Amino acid sequence: MGKLVVTEFVSLDGVFEDPGGAEGYEHGGWTFEYDRGQDGDSFKLDEVMEAEVQLLGRVTYEGFAAAWPSREGPFADKLNRDPKYVVSTTLTEPEWQNTKLISGRVSEAITKLKHETDGVILVAGSGTLVRTLLEADLVDELRLMLFPTILGRGRRLFPDGIDRLKLKLAESRTVGSDGVQIQIYTRAE
């Protein structure tokens, strides 16, 4: 059975919108203002290398598909090679190699994907998809890279309306010179 892992960059006030600066958000690229150090970079590379499958919402998929196919290096090579699933009701033919579309019955399709996968199914960004996964009780682990900033506005990772989910802190550490925190939460029994 696969383990569904959500990984996110998030501000202290819960904003996860446009951490890389490609979406036109007023504070876009906010994560680049902080040093996450070699340990932070290794953490991101390690989680991509660990993943068996990439699961993405349409907006994140389109950003990744525009950026990663033209890049080289271990991170890009792995993303380009990995099987990818994009959840969308508007996308009809994903063009990035090794990508399949999930367009209906998302919870059922992801449950089936978890049963068919032996390792980690990694979800990066993809806020609408993450909400759907949380509501369907399909998330096994949350990996948050928490940046020491308050953005004041923007899309929040956990918007109002999500039911309570009890978690357990499995790991917490500081990376880089600016106090960026990695927090890993698993399901509490």
Overall mean pLDDT stands at: 94
Unreliably modeled segments = none
Task: Compute the CA-based radius of gyration.
Answer: 16 Å
What class would the helix/strand composition place it in? alpha/beta
Number of E strands: 8
CATH topology, by name, is Dihydrofolate Reductase, subunit A
Element order, helices and strands?
EHEHHEEHEHEEE
What is the CATH homology-level superfamily? Dihydrofolate Reductase, subunit A
Fraction of residues in helix: 25-40%
CATH architecture: 3-Layer(aba) Sandwich
**CATH first level:** Alpha Beta
* Termini separation: 18 Å
How many independent structural domains?
A: 1
Strand order of the largest sheet: 4-3-2-5-1-6-8-7
Could you say which overall geometry the principal axes of the C-alpha atoms support? globular
Largest sheet: 8 strands, mixed
Number of helices: 5
Strand content: 25-35%
How is this structure best described in words?
With 189 residues, the protein is of the alpha/beta class. The chain has a single domain (3-176), classed as Dihydrofolate Reductase, subunit A (3-Layer(aba) Sandwich), CATH 3.40.430.10. Helix content is 28%, strand content 28%. It is built from five helices and eight strands, in the order E-H-E-H-H-E-E-H-E-H-E-E-E. The protein has helices at 37-50, 58-67, 74-81, 106-116, 127-135; strands at 3-11, 51-57, 84-87, 99-102, 120-124, 141-147, 167-175, 180-187. An eight-stranded mixed sheet has the order 4-3-2-5-1-6-8-7, sandwiched between helices. It is globular, with a radius of gyration of 16 Å.
